[in-house]
Design a protein that fits this description.
Strand content: 25-35%
Low-confidence stretches: none
Distance between the termini: 41 Å
Mean pLDDT: 96
Bound molecules: adenosine-5-diphosphoribose, P-hydroxybenzoic acid
Structural class: alpha/beta
Oligomer: single chain
Helix content: 25-40%
Length: 394
Amino acid sequence: MKRLRTQVGIVGAGPAGLTLAHLLDRVGIESVVLEDRSRDYVEHRIRAGVLEHGTVELLRESGVGERMDSEGILHHGISVQFEGERHRIALTDLAGGRSIVIYGQTEVVKDLIGARLERGLPLLFEVDGVSVRGFDGDEPAIAFRHEGEEQELRCDVIAGCDGFHGVCRPAIAPVLRTFEREYPFAWLGILAEAPPSSDELVYAHHERGFALLSLRSPHLSRLYLQCRPDENLDGWPEDRIWDELRTRTALDGWSLNTGPILEQGVTGMRSFVAEPMQHGRLFLAGDAAHIVPPTGAKGLNLAIADVAVLAQVLDRWYRTGDEGGLASYSETCLRRVWRAEHFSYWMTTMLHRISDDPFDLKLQLSQLRWVTTSQAAATSLAENYVGQPFELAS
Ligand code: APR
Ligand code: PHB
């Protein structure tokens, strides 16, 4: 068996694992990243695309923001549509000058992988049989196979950045308390070669279900429709997708641009939190610890906020030996996590067709009227949407 040694062993090369490795490198802490998929797979997985103000600043200030700054699209507002009316929420005016940037998560991942490989730092793709142990004491280790060879990575700390279906959270399941909500609907998402029909995102409530107009570039639209969790894409030829999008987003004097559909897929909706996000020398970050439904666009941003805290407390620990920061990691992250959980739940239940009960519908319409007419309510939406400033551990 080949034995390796590093300071921080990172499981998963999604946004959480890659950003953590990058931030640690910036402060001189060594890490090894282990990913079970191929580089090609990881770089082509289509995910969300809204970066909060704090995420943008962190990527820029840590030196991986160059392409984001040239290709990302700065947005100062979103629209909410219901009962055939479209109302703009002026995010930047309402949220103290903060804005969002539209830049695909896939692009963030490509930039981080590029930066790591350019520096010649260890990032292993297509590993398998990953298991973690020794984190109860002070000899954590990760066992895995790579290119047919059994290997063991000894480290000071393990970062479980391996997403919702990874191995790190199950490894500490007995000490975790989990909180969960499933939604009886999903999103059918498409990427289409069509110029965006709206300059800003449109979140549409409609009696036939929710629809979202988003974008990736001046030539690419990203669009979503509420559907059943077990929706079969065979029943959705292109014409049906466009008809449904047109119906749910219809507005006098406005029309939907269409074009060839390049990608399509169904994404389930779930809220989930595991507490605490740490046990001994194993720290969970990102989707490994929590999931939000995509309506608030918080998944990627939460993952980055977690590892910003983790990198900071690890840096302090290595420099001073002070364990206080490490001990407060979970509590620090969970404050932000639960705010985003509530916001995502609130946006989801306000905008989707959640039942056939007319009482639910009346409540939704009242909330929508409120967030689009009350400055206080719109400010609260805006503040959550652009995201709280990144919090540092105490
Ligand atoms: N060993 C190694 N890698 C693993 C393992 C394993 N056993 N299990 C999963 N992985 C990898 C996955 O292939 C994936 O690349 O861990 C990575 C986890 O990445 P993400 O799922 O992207 O999670 P995270 O980095 O926390 O980012 C959260 O991604 O899923 C979206 O909507 C979510 O935007 C959010 C963001
Ligand atoms: C996206 O562009 O993919 C997107 C935008 C906003 C969301 C979710 C996804 O709330």
